[in-house]
Write a structure and sequence with these properties.
Elements (H helix, E strand, L loop, with lengths): L1 E5 L2 E5 L5 H7 L24 E4 L6 E2 L10 E3 L3 H16 L15 H9 L23 E3 L9 H9 L5 E4 L6 E4 L15 H5 L5 E3 L3 H9 L4 E6 L20 H11 L3 E2 L2 H21 L6 E2 L4 H10 L13 H17 L6 E7 L3 H7 L13 E4 H10 L21 H4 L6 H15 L17 E7 L5 E8 L1 H13 L6 E5 L17 H18 L9 H11 L5 H7 L9
Parallel strand pairs: 1-5, 10-11, 10-13, 12-17, 13-14, 16-17
Antiparallel strand pairs: 1-2, 3-4, 3-5, 6-9, 7-8, 15-16
């Protein structure tokens, strides 16, 4: 252990700790833009975290400077404050001054630090920003290189957490920027659209593509019957947009807000999650019984699907043919729901609220129109919904709890836990066990597949099938490790669940900012509480609305109509 003082306060930390980490131990806040607590990357670039040290004549970057025995550090001397202010001024000199128009306004770390260090004017000549071209080529993300401060957080998360290695530094000086490999636009690259770059970006250099105006336009159109679905993770995160604690479960208030925004029917993606389990669970059993391609891999996450299409095309046959819950919902909304509601499907406008930026891309895939129409018309993220609610002047925290509309608002606890890593696996095993044995699983809580470990494994005795072996991974770098083992033939799994984002959907690219591992844990706990304590039905195959759907429309899982509407195929893409 090393003893030192920071601002004359004693602190003792392990050898190898940085000054920044030591300061956090005693609640001294040193501003920084490039360092990010959840990433082990290349800090020291922004120089905002400069401090004064008795061992150095020059100021040192606290995020990379290691502590030493007896060291004395000062974090807010006049010299330090002037240096930080100058650093931020230089950053702002090469940054657009359109804060009021920026999507990150109010959540921008550069904006917050400029206020913190007291920047009131920029004393250097502003650079020419016109040389930077905005990349709006993809359905999911929007890049504005003029707003890049070269912190390289996006480079680190794309390489370390996601294993895609798409983003790379380019240029020097005022031309320094981060670009996709080979200088391609996002739409032409192997980007998975997971949005983790947008999560860690401190400014508006990478953000989700804003589709709120398309939703407002549909709500204002009297010819449109506008219905909405919300992913399970959204109810555990939306409250954070309005200052509520992480892990607050705001299902009823969310429904009330959506009604006041003007949606004709408020439904739930959890209904379609239960439907997915019916199809996917039976598909797994069919593959096991008929010696089909194993291990079967979940297909709920569009970022993961695109990752396989680019990097592991030989494993496409292993993917479940099931559409994701979002897309199943859209297909059923424009067929079954249109029929029972007496609404022309061409007038039905389906809005999805998702934790995920890749869902925007998924909804636009050409395969997703088996209803005869585009299954899902618009996807907005949790953050975009927060902006809409604020734009409507709603006091979210004071809204009363309201209930979903039938029939596509009924769901089970199994549908809810889809939002946490391992949730799809747990839900599928509950139903597979019941189909094979005719009994309810003795303990519906499968703890082995829960939690934030990168890769989790479990084995479950499922009646006459014997032992079913499963694995769960979240974050595409972890998926890569697991896929390499599958290809090498060193695994014997029957079923694998992959979610592209850390923690699963609770850590999605469209969720409230900032993110942290503790927030992911609290959000997941909220979903497990909803499953265990709120929902009376905890197994997908026991959802009465799903049973009615099969009785009156689909007839049976994996049947002719199910295959036509609820299943799809995937495309091999180049790296």
């Amino acid at each position: 252990m090393i003893k030192l003082s920071i601002d004359d306060l004693p602190v003792e930390v392990p050898n190898g700790t940085t000054v920044l980490e030591a300061a956090r131990r005693i609640n001294i806040h040193i501003p920084t833009l490039c360092a990010y607590q959840e990433l082990n990357h290349f800090p020291g670039a922004c120089r905002v975290c400069l401090v004064e040290c008795d061992r150095s004549r020059s100021l040192v970057a606290s995020c990379v400077f290691p502590v030493a025995e007896g060291m004395k550090i000062w974090t807010h001397t006049e010299r330090v404050r002037k240096a930080r202010r100058a650093v931020v001024e230089f950053l702002l000199s090469d940054h657009p001054d359109d804060c009021q128009l920026c999507q990150k306004n109010g959540a921008c770390e550069l904006q917050a630090i400029a206020e913190q260090v007291g920047v009131r004017k920029i004393r250097v000549n502003r650079s020419d920003l016109s040389r930077h071209q905005i990349d709006s080529s993809s359905e999911a993300l929007r890049r504005d290189p003029a707003k890049c401060i070269y912190c390289l957080r996006c480079v680190a998360v794309c390489a370390q957490v996601q294993g895609v290695n798409l983003l790379t530094p380019a240029g020097r000086g005022f031309d320094a920027r981060v670009v996709p490999a080979l200088g391609l636009d996002l739409a032409d690259s192997n980007c998975t659209y997971c949005g983790q770059c947008a999560v860690v970006c401190p400014t508006g250099a990478i953000v989700e593509k804003d589709d709120t105006e398309r939703v407002w336009a549909a709500l204002a159109d009297p010819q449109k019957h506008v219905i909405v679905q919300e992913a399970p993770a959204v109810r555990a995160q939306l409250g954070e947009e309005f200052g509520m604690d992480p892990g607050s479960l705001v299902t009823g208030q969310m429904i009330a807000a959506l009604r006041r925004l003007g949606f004709d029917q408020v439904f739930d993606t959890n209904f379609a999650a239960d439907l997915t389990i019916m199809e996917e669970g039976h598909e797994l059993l069919q593959r096991v019984k008929q010696n089909g391609v194993l291990p079967m891999m979940t297909s709920c996450c569009p970022g993961w699907i695109k990752f396989v299409e680019h990097f592991y095309p030989s494993l496409i046959p292993n993917l479940s043919t099931c559409k994701s819950p979002q897309q199943m919902f859209g297909a059923i909304a424009k067929t079954y729901y249109a029929q029972i509601a007496g609404v022309d499907p061409k007038d039905i406008f389906v809005v999805s609220i998702m934790p995920c930026t890749a869902k925007k891309y998924e909804a636009a895939r050409p395969e997703m129109c088996d209803s005869g129409f585009r299954d899902v018309d618009v996807v907005i993220t949790t953050r975009e919904l927060g902006r809409m609610i604020r734009g409507a002047g709603l006091d979210f925290v004071s809204l009363p709890d309201e209930d979903y509309d039938p029939p596509m608002g009924q769901y089970s606890g199994a549908g809810t836990i889809f939002g946490a890593t391992g949730g799809v696996m747990e839900a599928a095993l509950r139903t597979a066990y019941a189909v094979v044995t005719g009994k309810t699983m003795p303990n519906l809580d499968i703890q082995q597949v829960r939690g934030l470990a990168g890769v989790k494994e479990a084995a479950l005795e499922v009646g006459k099938l014997g032992q079913v072996r499963v694995a769960v991974a979240h974050g595409l770098a972890n998926a890569r490790k697991l896929m390499d083992r599958v290809i090498a033939g060193t695994t014997d799994y029957h079923f694998i669940e992959i979610m592209a984002c850390p923690g699963g959907c609770v850590g999605g690219g469209g969720q409230p900012l900032p993110a942290s591992e503790e927030k992911l844990r609290l959000r997941a706990e909220a979903l497990y509480r909803d499953d265990a304590l709120v929902q009376k039905v905890r197994e997908s195959h026991m959802n009465p609305a799903i049973l009615a759907l099969y009785e009156h429309f689909l007839r049976e899982p994996l049947g002719y109509r199910s295959h036509g509407l609820l299943h799809t195929k995937y495309t091999e893409r180049g790296e």
